[in-house]
Amino acid sequence: MSVLNVDRADFLKEEDIVIFEESAAKFLDEHAPPARVQRWREAGIVERAAWREAGEAGLLCLSVPEAYGGGGGDFRHEVVLMEQMAKKEVSGFFASLHSTIVAPYILHYGSEEQKRNWLPKMASGEFIGAIAMSEPGAGSDLQGIKSTARLDGNHYVLNGQKTFISNGQLADLIIVVAKTDPSRGAKGTSLIVVETAEATGFHRGSNLDKIGMEAQDTSELFFDNVRVPTSNLLGAEEGQGFVQLMQQLPQERLTIGITGVATMERALEQTIAYVKERKAFGQRLIDFQNTQFKLAECKTEATVARIFIDRLIGLHLQGKLDAATASMAKYWVSDLENKVVDTCLQLFGGYGYMNEYPIARMFRDSRAQRIYGGSNEIMKVLIARTL
Predict the structure, then answer these.
(1) Cα angle at 308 between 77 and 6, to 5 degrees?
(2) Dmax of the chain from CA atoms?
(3) What are 318-363's pLDDT values in tens digits?
(4) Which of 78, 252, 265, 337 is catalytic?
């Protein structure tokens, strides 16, 4: 039983989901043990072999139909894997971005040829996916991007700079947000897929030095007159990119809430175990009323978050999750995650500040949750529009 003592939604307790959860946990125990994950942190990147192993085990593109090489499952399978990775502290391995953010753009907006060409390679781990939205001067404000894709015969000529791009050093396939008609604002935005091995003029910048998620190869990317076939445009015509982004961002924001709750659960498990062993002034930390009250607050808040997120997973499975509610999940759960993890770290005392303790890594890693996927301030703007 989870430390939260709350029953999961019925749709997450079906037999095939439970069996898959056990399989995913076993894979991570065998292929992402703490020593290997630590090597990824030290290297600043997850080795490509790990992606291939995940692909061979059928853990990439879980909700992509089998016809395109995927697992043939649904979003519940993606949820299970995300939660297991959070609980086992496999931070920095952004298989969830690859499978639940990048692949759906191709699945929903790609032509039949695009889907058959790219999705099987993503499912096998041969191709690692990324999406390039943010720029040095445009983050949450996607309408402010400056990258351009100029039509030249049967090619686009892509120019621009992207930053904070997850999977940037490894990516073989990148969905680039660019202006195909800068005069039309958001309506002139398109999504263009770049296969990096064939992209003359494409350069990877530095693997960015972050305060957390050290194993994640978050990068700068440069496009200098990169010629991309017009057949790599996502959608039947130019100018659909902003609408496509708005349609897919709710799932991305829900995934942030899902990992946030799983992280809180793990933080509580570790902290409760610690305070039951650690002694001060002749008694266990758990015997102090302050410790009990702090953990009671954290458990209550995390439980509320769990019930809320499970409700939203159910709505998403029914195709009923709206953008504003997904924004609520993203901002509120990530704020709460930071609060709970910080409270737990405090109960570890000096040990909580030591990098070898998982709570310290959770503290650092959690901070990005309030920024990526659209800053929490932007989430509040989106919610306020519904008032």
Answers:
(1) 80
(2) 79
(3) 999 999 999 999 999 999 999 999 999 999 999 999 998 999 999 9
(4) 252
The whole model's pTM is what? Answer: 0.95
Fold of 130-239: Butyryl-CoA Dehydrogenase, subunit A; domain 2 (2.40.110)
Contact by Cβ (8 Å): 257, 372: no
Range 10-127: architecture per CATH: Orthogonal Bundle (1.10)
Q: What is the pLDDT of residue 2?
A: 82
* CATH number for region 243-384: 1.20.140.10
- DSSP-assigned letter for residue 201: T
- pLDDT at site 1: 61
At residue 140, the pLDDT reads 72
Could you check whether 10-127 and 130-239 share the same CATH topology? Answer: no
**What are the sequence ranges of the domains in the chain?**
10-127, 130-239, 243-384
| Residue of 128, 8, 89 lying closest to 259 (CA atoms) | 89
- 252 given a catalytic annotation: yes
Burial (Cβ within 10 Å: 0-12, 13-18, ≥19) of residue 269: middle
